[in-house]
Amino acid sequence: MDLQFRPENAHVIPSAQGPILVAARSMALFVVDPAAEAILAYARTQPRFSLAHLAETLADRFSSQDVLETVQELLRLHVFVEGNRPLSPVQPVVDVARFPVGSLVLNVANKCNLHCSYCYEPEAAKYGPVPVQMEWETARTSVDFLFHKAGSNPEVNLIFFGGEALLNFKLMQQVVAYAQEKGQAAGKRVDFSLTTNGTLLTDEVIDFFQEHRFGITVSMDGPQELHDRRRFFLTAKGERRGSYEQIVPRVKRLLGRYTARPVVARVTVTKGTIDIVRIYEHLTELGFFEIGFAPVTAKNGEDYGLEPANLRQVLDGFKALGDVYVERALRNQYTGFSNLSTMLTDLHAGTNKLFPCGAGLGLLDVDGNGDVYLCHRFPGTEEHRYGNVKEGIEYDRLNDFINGAHVGNKPVCQTCWIRGLCGGGCYHEAYTQFGDGALPNLHYCDFLREWTEYGVGVYMKLQAENPGFVETYVIRGRGDAPKELT
């Protein structure tokens, strides 16, 4: 039997439990035994070889039967293939028109009362002479569209977004009432969630969220001097005024009054706001259940953009917070660090992505005019406008993009062992950085590979030393937290 080693399907990570093999085709994890370790070491020096020669080379250490059984297992994992099989492009695998939509983002207000310096929403849309506020007819048609496209999904998700969504709170109330009626008639559960800057939270708003069990994400960047650096109001004179002092009492009111579900914070990490552990500790002291960190992607020349040295700082901060996470986990204490919890959840579930997220498939975005986009980051981007909820969806164009963006059609991703967790990376970040949403996020590849290595090590340590923790405290314990839009 002639064999070829496929290193892109086999990544070995050292750990206290022994070498860990990540079988990248399935994203399955294995503690490597001595026979497999020796065979993989041999294959790295001689990528093409015969089974007979391999067995002969290792005969002084392992029986031919041990070698054969290990090779057969590695064949099943696509670490080895028989003969010489070249990579070939993936043919279309999804018909988007037939794919059920489970989540719909409603941009109920383009306008925002903050002027955050890193916002991806076009300036003219938020602060122009006529910022768009979604009207009832558009909202109702959008909800009808969601239920029509939901197929057999037992649950649909409506996500309110902006601008600042609470600038159109009255419409949100109408939408919730209508969607619940539709859900009862269709026999489907309806989940509501919201991303807000926190400046407009009132008792009335909070009680409405409580009544309808909203999943709530608050955009907040940490202690005052870090938060106010990028998240501010503009006065009538054009002067910047930080938003922290207005947000904090409202957030405290929310966290004291709202009990229906865990509330999470989303932090945009920019140059100068990279103190991960300090930010986490500050936000958890305020009372947030969980904090997710999103390193910003910026066009070249933006002063808030992260350079390679800054990404190194972010990664070091993630690992420092991860070490705290592990220390507490071994005492059965949960640490609300979304980035690590999400990875542990994916590793435990055996997540193996063909696409980076559900954008364009199970999730779509509708702006105030009813125009349909891949996700909440794309409104105003003509290349990724795919029709209108009132006039119809351009499924041919959407199909072309989604199938072209399949991770199997990104050659550089085929040599990367984390492709099953990454899926090639965020479409909008690729669009911002490279002008093409279908390209992989090459600017984050090294960062993500090292962070994933760390996460795999954490997962295997917890499975060895506290095996019930991920299932009980991470998956079930955080299961009712909102699904963050990052």
How is the topology of this model organized?
Blueprint: E1 2-5, E2 10-13, E3 20-23, E4 28-31, H1 34-45, E5 48-50, H2 51-57, H3 64-76, E6 80-82, E7 103-109, H4 123-127, H5 136-149, E8 155-162, H6 169-186, E9 189-196, H7 203-212, E10 215-219, H8 224-230, E11 232-234, E12 240-242, H9 244-257, E13 263-269, H10 276-286, E14 290-295, H11 308-329, H12 338-349, E15 363-366, E16 371-373, E17 385-388, E18 392-393, H13 395-404, H14 419-422, H15 427-434, H16 445-465, H17 469-476
Parallel strand pairs: 7-8, 7-15, 8-9, 9-10, 10-13, 13-14
Antiparallel strand pairs: 1-5, 1-6, 2-3, 3-4, 11-12, 15-16, 16-17, 17-18
Which key features would you list for this structure?
Outer Surface Protein A, domain 3, three-stranded antiparallel sheet, TIM Barrel, globular, 486 residues
What percent of residues are in strands? 15-25%
- Catalogue the unreliable spans: none
CATH topology of the domain at 101-261 and 357-396: TIM Barrel
**So how many helices?**
17
| Rg (CA only) | 24 Å
What is the helix content? 40-55%
What is the CA-CA span between the terminal residues?
A: 47 Å
CATH class of the domain at 101-261 and 357-396: Alpha Beta
Name given to the CATH homologous superfamily of the domain at 101-261 and 357-396 = Aldolase class I
Assembly state: single chain
Which term fits the overall shape?
Answer: globular
Largest sheet: 10 strands, mixed
Biggest sheet strand line-up = 14-13-10-9-8-7-15-16-17-18
CATH architecture of the domain at 101-261 and 357-396, by name, is Alpha-Beta Barrel
Secondary-structure-derived class: alpha/beta
Number of strands: 18
Whole-number average pLDDT?
A: 93
